[in-house]
Design brief:
heterodimer, A: about 210 residues, Rossmann fold, two-stranded antiparallel sheet, about 15% strand
């Protein structure tokens, strides 16, 4: 359970780090209403996650650690279309946006392929694509590079860096956060550091060595 | 089922998924009402002709039959010995024709179109409290997660092997079920974050 967390997130690139079980994934899930606070409140552009859950989720996309748990349709293009169908997009728009996002992430050749046979990196890019086409204003990433090899980590890191949206990234990959605007460090379900990546990450690594 | 769809523009590709499913259901019923071998052979020939008409090579027709070959042979032998070879050939020809027709549906229809068609076809169930949207999503999820579950089972089996356990259904089944249940929570969250609201 998180304690004494009072934050206002306004930067374009925000990193969240912390040891296992420190509360960072809980924090991420609070941001788009997947979890609701037992005390206090979480608001996104004035919308309360408790009262306006659907509207908040429309604004805040979420990319999970394991893309296999996020890809819900068997075929690549069908999975991308899923979110847009839910939002009531017409067929022409769905086709256009699907093609655009597949081209952007070099997945066009896999358009009609089963998602199961994509590589780990391609699956994560597919998961990001499925969220991006819904045009959220903010995207929360929960350890998006944890299961990836170096090449795919770089691809996903570039994809995050190139986003127009605000990105809030929970990660253990400290290199990913070097160019971020702000890093928040969680420890024992509290915030133990908050600021620019340099000092915040230094505090984090010192804490980790202090065993 | 996962990669059988072959994109194309033939009349069979363009035919609505619901119509194709309905035609399959009707033909599948009618062939069981027929006891003339000539009609069954003619039906088989028509189904085979549909493959080139759908711009599909006959090798793809063979690919539909190949996995069931041993079953077809077993039926032929069993029927042949019990009811005579004529009946055996009749039953096998009927079964093969149905397999080829079902294969044709899979090869010319996207999974999403089939699921959508099914969702439309199930609208009558709304009156008995069934939500067709939920049924079609469940179907898509089943298709999507069959290979994922196979991968999980493979991983658990390997983990058991490296610890010296070669064959134990329970030792494999329990971790697979636990992992699947954990995974299902995240899948439900993922569906929710993508705007699903039945």
């Amino acid at each position: 359970m998180l304690k004494d967390v009072c934050l206002r997130l306004t930067e374009r690139r925000i990193g969240i780090v912390g040891s296992n079980g420190s509360g960072k994934s809980t924090f991420a899930r609070l941001l788009n209403g997947l979890l609701l606070p037992t005390e206090g409140r979480v608001t996104v552009d004035g919308l309360d996650t408790r009262k306006d859950g659907k509207k908040v989720r429309r604004k805040v996309g979420f990319v999970f650690q394991n893309p296999d748990n996020q890809i819900v349709f068997p075929i690549v293009e069908e999975d991308i279309a899923f979110g847009m169908k839910n939002l009531g997009f017409d067929k022409a728009t769905i086709k256009e946006k699907t093609e655009a996002v597949l081209s952007r992430y070099d997945l066009m050749d896999h358009r009609t392929h089963p998602s199961h046979f994509l590589s780990g990196g391609q699956k994560q890019l597919l998961a990001i694509s499925g969220v991006l086409v819904m045009a959220p204003e903010y995207i929360v990433f929960d350890e998006p590079t944890t299961l990836l090899d170096l090449r795919n980590k770089i691809r996903v890191a570039r994809a995050i860096a190139d986003l127009d949206q605000t990105a809030i990234v929970v990660t253990h990959d400290l290199d990913l956060l070097a160019d971020f605007d702000r890093v928040i460090v969680f420890g024992d379900n509290r915030i133990i550091a908050d600021g620019p990546p340099g000092p915040a990450l230094q505090c984090y690594t010192e804490t980790m060595h202090d065993v | 089922m996962f990669d059988l769809f072959r994109p194309g523009h033939s009349f069979l590709h363009r035919l609505p998924a619901g119509t194709k499913v309905l035609l399959l259901a009707v033909s599948g019923t009618l062939v069981f009402l027929v006891d003339e071998i000539v009609i069954i052979v003619a039906f088989l020939a028509v189904v085979l002709t549909l493959y080139p008409l759908a711009r599909l090579p006959l090798t793809s027709a063979w690919a539909q039959l190949r996995p069931a070959l041993w079953i077809l042979v077993a039926i032929l032998v069993a029927q042949g010995l019990i009811n005579g070879w004529f009946v055996g050939f009749f039953v096998v020809a009927r079964f093969a024709a149905l397999l080829l027709l079902a294969g044709l549906l899979t090869l010319t229809t996207r999974v999403s179109d089939m699921v959508e068609g099914m969702e439309r076809g199930l609208w009558v169930l709304r009156y008995v409290g069934v939500n067709p949207g939920k049924v079609s999503l469940a179907l898509s999820l089943a298709l999507r997660f069959i290979p994922v579950l196979a991968t999980i089972t493979g991983e658990v089996r390997e983990a058991q092997k490296v610890r010296g356990l070669d064959r134990s259904v329970i030792a494999v089944a329990i971790p697979v079920v636990v992992r699947t249940l954990r995974m299902s929570d995240e899948i439900a969250d993922a569906i929710e974050t993508r705007g699903y609201g039945p």
